[in-house]
Amino acid sequence: MTVQVKICGIRSARAIKALVAGGAGYAGFVFYPQSPRVVTLDEAAVLARHAGGRLKRVGLVVDATDDFVADLCRKVALDYLQLHGRETPRRVDELRRLAGLPVIKAVAIAGPQDVALAKSYQSVADMLLFDAKPPKSMPAALPGGNGLAFDWRLIAGEDWRIPWMLSGGLDADNVAEAIAVSGARMVDVSSGVESRPGEKNMEQIAAFLQAAGEAK
Length: 216
Prior knowledge:
Layout: E1 4-8, H1 13-22, E2 26-30, H2 41-51, E3 56-61, H3 66-75, E4 80-83, H4 89-99, E5 103-109, H5 112-119, E6 127-132, E7 164-166, H6 175-182, E8 186-189, E9 194-196, E10 199-200, H7 202-214
Parallel strand pairs: 1-2, 1-8, 2-3, 3-4, 4-5, 5-6, 6-7
Antiparallel strand pairs: 9-10
Helix pairs in contact: 1-7
């Protein structure tokens, strides 16, 4: 089975073209104001039109209000809503109904207790995304895109009832190992294909997509 790839933090039509050329399956647009990858609704609307029919378009929000999610879904053509904050299972269900879209719930992983927490979302989310939980020594860490990895063995062999993606600290050099250890069939990358925070590198995108495509 081919490993599917989501590249998050897309901010340019050039990056969209690189994703399509390299065989990516998903493009993520970030709507978190503190992120160096943030885009406005108007910018995302244009990018989503470029990606339409060629990539699954994912809108990433963090503890968003009903009003913002409603506005986002009106203005930007999306295929998925990604919740990357502290949303409870109840809140995930509320936003899924409000958006009228399949929901990806990101869960930060550092230990077995986080894996157990992730399972509580399986009845309300359509997909899970496992990211690394920043240590307490990083109080200014972003909800995602920090370039941190976690112990992939924590999720390996678990009986997940819904599809899931592996994220956190992935790049072209380690994605094959991550896939082999975790058993992931979908992976997500952001900072691992950037020249600097928020600036996607087309060569790194191509290298990551090739490495993921060749992984077994």
